[in-house]
């Protein structure tokens, strides 16, 4: 059996939970107490795993820390690891995503607010702005979503280092095939009903909440939008709705199964009311046929009434299982594809991000 690590970023600190030999997860004492942790990653490419954390010091601003000893000690670059060049006139507000490249040793991508992509070539210690996306003519017209103008999803191609997809709220989906030198909007078919009638399928400006894909089929993308759940079978060239049979197609997280590229998970919420679970029941919905049908999964989850929510980066599927954390500080996991759930942690601060890895 495997050993697993669960990294949980919250509004007030970082928590690590470890499982040995498939046993129960043991939650370790808090790290970065009182500090917001909005992005985490576990980089298993090297001889030892590296944990990355995008933290927000408050008065001292955001930064990126890393640990090469499973959280015992942490390091930070001598100067701000992510900083906008002076010519941009921009200042870093938050790190929303940290994503190791699957095809380039040492490369880590960071998605940030305000709406920008950064690249690291030293394992996440220091980063440089990807100027091609920053200089895109659409960027000046992007509008912030409720969480800000955040680049929250980075999907590098599993084998082609020149190809990648990103998502910005509320800019939309963009893709590059030349290593980030140039970008094209990839939002065809995504409806944006907040635009005037006749203009509800714009080239860009969609309020995208999350995008994911399986490494074995990178051309098939799944997307949770403010107004729907979508699938693309051509790397974002066009999108089709797959959320019609869900009790609500509004939500924030979406994650794809670690082994099955047509299996995905979402957490539907009541969109136009209080953004709590539909019928106030804590249920994850899984599709095993790329969105053609959906199944509600709730065995082991609270029976309700439940008034919490799951944020965009707080659900993750890996070889260790499927995990999610809620805004009231509960973390749940499943080792049988969501058929049954167990409690990992309770009474944590507001959970912002979750990542699981097999060690």
From TrEMBL:
GO biological process annotation, one example: xyloglucan metabolic process
User: What InterPro entries does its record include?
Assistant: WD40/YVTN_repeat-like_dom_sf, Xyloglucanase_GH74
**PANTHER family tied to this protein:** EXO-ALPHA-SIALIDASE, XYLOGLUCANASE (EUROFUNG)
Give the protein's recorded name. Answer: BNR-Asp box repeat-containing protein
